[in-house]
């Protein structure tokens, strides 16, 4: 393998890894996770509430069960 070919392959691999990292770190991960959580909420697998800032928070199952028990006793 020629020195120039080796250098070109190394620089190309480093550049590819850099751009792959930038792509995954940007809004893509946040978009994927947000879409997944919205789908889980829509299909009833998780429960969320809006906090005072307008952000969604997951509700623990224990709170849901406790509220259901209180409602059932009424």
Secondary structure: elements and pairs:
Layout (H helix, E strand, L loop, with lengths): L2 H40 L5 E3 L5 E3 L2 H13 L1
Antiparallel strand pairs: 1-2
Task: Please give a handful of descriptors for the protein shown.
mainly alpha; 2 helices; 74 residues
Brief synopsis:
This protein is mainly alpha-helical and 74 residues long. It has helices at residues 3-42, 61-73, and strands at 48-50, 56-58.
Descriptive overview:
The protein is mainly alpha-helical and 74 residues long. The chain contains two helices and two strands. The protein folds into two domains: 1-43; 45-74, no CATH class. The termini are far apart. The relative contact order is 0.06.
């Amino acid at each position: 393998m020629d020195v120039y070919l080796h250098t070109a392959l190394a620089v190309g691999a480093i550049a590819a890894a850099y751009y792959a990292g930038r792509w995954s770190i940007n809004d893509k991960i946040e978009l994927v996770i947000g879409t997944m959580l919205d789908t889980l909420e829509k299909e009833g697998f998780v429960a969320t509430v809006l906090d005072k800032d307008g952000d969604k928070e997951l509700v623990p199952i224990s709170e849901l069960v406790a509220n259901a028990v209180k409602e059932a006793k009424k």
